[in-house]
Design goal:
The protein is of the alpha+beta class and about 450 residues long. It is built from 17 helices and 16 strands. Helix content is about 40%, strand content about 20%.
Amino acid sequence: MILKRPKGTQDITPGVINRWRTVETAASGLAEQFGFREIRTPVFEETGLYVRSVGDTSDVVTKEMYTVSSKGDDAFTLRPEGTAGVIRALLENGILNEGFPQKVYYIIPCYRHEKPQAGRFREFRQFGVEMAGSASPYADAEIILLAASVLDACGLENVELHLNSIGCPECRAEYRKALKSYFEPHIGEMCDTCRDRLEKNPMRLLDCKSPVCKEIAKNAPVITDYLCGGCREHFEKLKSILDGYEIKYTVDPRIVRGLDYYTRTVFEFISNDIGAQGTVCGGGRYDGLISELGGQPTPALGFGMGLERLILCMEAAGVEFDPPKTPDLYIAPMGERAQEKAALLCDAVRRAGYAAEFDLIGRGIKPQMRYADKVGAKFVCVLGDNELDSGEAKLKNMKTGEETPVRLEDFISAFNSLLLNEMFGSNFSEEFGSILNDLPAEDTAPNNE
């Protein structure tokens, strides 16, 4: 019996890896344009890190974490999200002492014990960014603009930005009182989880997925009515900046996010193409998290973007992914002598920067040609005794069927010319070469100064 992968996971096979590379390349490239540097952290952390940062009343901590322990060790948890581990790394490695703002990004696997469904996995991949050291609403707008730019680069148009402010600890204290007063008369109707949350963290009641609790929460007080002067000013300035960027948004006072470390700005990008699991990106401010984890009080913010959902949205929208990488050349040898030459030619082609393969199984010429066509080789060269004795072979363009004779001693330069012509148009290599030949000698000579 063939063993199967664990429930809630997926195999990313060679046939679809180009989809992942498409989004990963777009995300990392744009992050670096915005001045973010890549960071990589362990896949597991001490459990206490997540309890302190994410919150002991959050669904992540109470229901979803994978926690393990080994003899003589403390308990460790597979990371359920990226922010806490990254902030721990910034503190532990002294990066926050190097000047502000510090801006980092990451592409990581995360783990949560959830009911698997479309767009929701127990192992999922996340693109995230974190910025530490700026309290300015321009920083909030910057990360929102980055998220919007990634979604735009991935070809998504049917995505809406939902925006809210959940205030600071001072104004949230008054809001919690209002929520408790509102929900207490309904305590008998609510789920067990919400009954427990009512005392510990009533804002979590707004995030409950129970249909009964969601109906009760419809008429609950909204946080924007309880913002203090500073939080209100910050939120209004953020909206003004987004207006200047011409980024459309909807103020949604029901957004609280699922993690307890958020303060002030919270936001979500929601797709209308993939049903209930439509949130493809979420983030906001967490100005108290760094001090909670042992650092000096430092404003910070960031977002996380689920790559599975992003790809699901792209597929639903019919977006074209970058094509998979295919061999530039396949050499089909016939006989031992030809295989030895094919191996050397492939090595030379690879050293020149191209992708090349040759037969490793000892197949006949027809199966080799079928294989070359299947893997999408751009050019094929058949090598046998005749080609080796004459010192000349033919390079076949698999798209056009055209065959070009080449001397084996000039194989690399000839192949290079054919490939450039294929990529940029016929006679490109000749025209480019003539341009170089027409340049003054001092422009082409090595600089020995």
